[in-house]
Amino acid sequence: MVVANGAFDFACLAAEDESMFPLIFKAIREGRVYDVLIAQSLDAIEGGYLGIDPRTGKALRDPETNDVKSRYSLAICCDLVLGRVDAKRNDVWRVSYALLDGIPEERWPAEARQYPVDDAVNTLEVALGQLEGWDRGLDPERGPARNLDNMAAQVEAAFALHLGAAWGIRTDGERIAALSVEVDAKHAEAVKRYTKMGWIRPDGPKVGSEDQAAVKRAIALAYGASGTCRKCRGAGKVERAPKVSEKTGKPLKAGAPRICSPRNFEDEETCDGTGLDLSTAPMLPRADKGGVKTDRDALMESGDDDLHDFGADEFEKIRTTYLPFLRKGIDGPINLRPNVLVATGRVSYSDPIHQFPRKGGARECIIARPGTVFASVDYAAGELCTLAQVCLWLFGKSKMAKIINASKDPGALHTWLAARMLGVTFEEMKARVKAGDVLAKNYRSVGKSCDFGLGGGMGSPKFVMTSRKKNAGETVCSDGYVHAGLRFCVLLDGASRCGTKKITEWKGRACAPVCKTCTEITEERLRPEFFSAYEEVKEYHEWVAEKVDDDGRMPCFVWNPETGKVEVARWRGGCSFTDGANNAFQALMSDITKRAYCTMTREAYLGVKDDGSPSPLAGSRFPVVVHDEPVGELAWATAHLSAPRMSEIMVQSGYDLAPDVFWKAEPAISQMMTKDVEPVYDESGKLVLWTPKARVA
Q1: Residue 55 Cα distances to 61, 63, 128, 303, angstroms
Q2: Looking at the predicted structure, is the pLDDT value of residue 139 above 70?
Q3: Looking at the predicted structure, is the pLDDT value of residue 244 above 80?
Q4: How far is Cα 690 from Cα 697, in angstroms, rounded to an integer?
Q5: Is 0.85 topped by the overall pTM?
Q6: How does 543-573 read in b/e, with b if 16+ C-beta sit within 10 Å?
Q7: Which residues are bridge partners to 61 per DSSP?
Q8: CA nearest 453: which of 413, 425, 483, 490?
Q9: Are strands 502-506 and 509-515 parallel, antiparallel or unpaired?
Q10: Distance of alpha carbon 128 from alpha carbon 130, whole angstroms
């Protein structure tokens, strides 16, 4: 069966006749469904150009409209595979067939009758082109599409995701209204703060707007720019030479000075209005024409706390992005737009559901429908389990795996590494953390950051940069000042502030501005301790480096429970060292999560487990997968049974594809989506509803 976006077609078919569900799942699981869009994605992942036109090296574009697209469509596939740009030439009726309801087909306009034929024929021809090889004049050397052995798993995941999207999520109007008031007030405070700093105009015709010149100068200084611009001599503007009167030969009044920027002085070195010598800051983010970038990344990687906050400006993000999105769910469901496959194998969404901040209240505006609750089940240190498993497969050993299996708790890795760093026993560290010992908790936070960051191949400056992001936590200084993220110089060495001295070069290479002390702590203490603790990770990095130097293709390993062998689910091409280092464990984690999500969805719609016995998940719905965490909407009355079933499925999926490490995934239920949710049990051991703790005035 050849389809294009078959998940949509199957969902429409099942909506018309629910008895089709078993047949659809059966056909997909038996590998009888070939989706040309997924095939194109799988092939591009191995080629290292997912979302890129390999003919131009640039973003995909619709062949008819020339609009940039982030996903493959039938029109794009026709262009890439067949060299044809006419796939949608008869699509004028594509979204208008309701107008023809009840009218005999023979009386339909010619275009209305032709479009379904074109859709079927084009899909088939693309499939044949992919299977036979791109041999129709576009690329005579090109063989068949790659990674197709992974098709069935991705097709089922796409169908499950579409069913979840069709169910959608609902939001609470009262919570949204309260959040709007709170966010507006905090945003006003932020505006006042940045106005004082000169980054927002306090008056004039552009009052309240961003002063780009002031922001650019602050960014340039943060990235280490110094000296004076030779063109404008530090003024930021260049005086215009006065014109000479043709009649008198005398100079006329000079025009207003021009900003010393690339747009005014092409092919000349300028300061973009900052007055600084920008050549002194090699890591300064530059726009296409050489100006100073002021985007979110440039601000947040500047090493300056104020610029970081200005870029993050979570209240502005909530106001302009999250609240408008959430308001759509007050009167009806928000139907999310999932993308089954990114290069790592993970799921993504066109909606901002994955970007919601952990704190701030936006996530909590998403509520379960009346009579239902949300079930959240997250793997405990899942990516460390998969890293340990990959190392076992590659080298036959893994200290990580030993600790995970001995403790029956993957999260124990953080405590174990922290104990090594602090020079105490594992048991003592556990006791000190439980007792609230500040130093022990600091070391455990740093250990957790090392476990998740250094395994992915980060260098010391990049690791420091990543660890200081807000989602890593926060660091409270001795005087109460709070830094976003983890600041090693404060947590481990008791510095009064992080970043009192910054560097923009490390080991002879330019880097984004980072705290010198934090970088030295990472290089001299954290990295040696990490690689001494987990010797297999050093071997793993050497293996990755060889693969990257060879051809940049990385295998995505999985265990095949049917054959009892390790297999390559798919290949990922075009990898840099860090891409390759992250790929093996991220890809395995994504495959485990999708397997679990598909199993939950099957049981929800079919009402039975794969062995035919009744499933407590019957009638449940799974609207979203947040990274590696499926979220279920379950009947409240039976959630104490269905949520643990989700946990069972997730743990079993872990053992199915990575059988040599201990897996843990505890369920929790609540009436809202929140990162604060935790498992709560009554005296009899029954899972009960989690509720927020009462606020203390």
Answers
A1: 12, 13, 20, 38
A2: no
A3: no
A4: 21
A5: yes
A6: bbeebbeeebbbbbbbbeeeeeebeebbbbb
A7: 68
A8: 413
A9: antiparallel
A10: 5
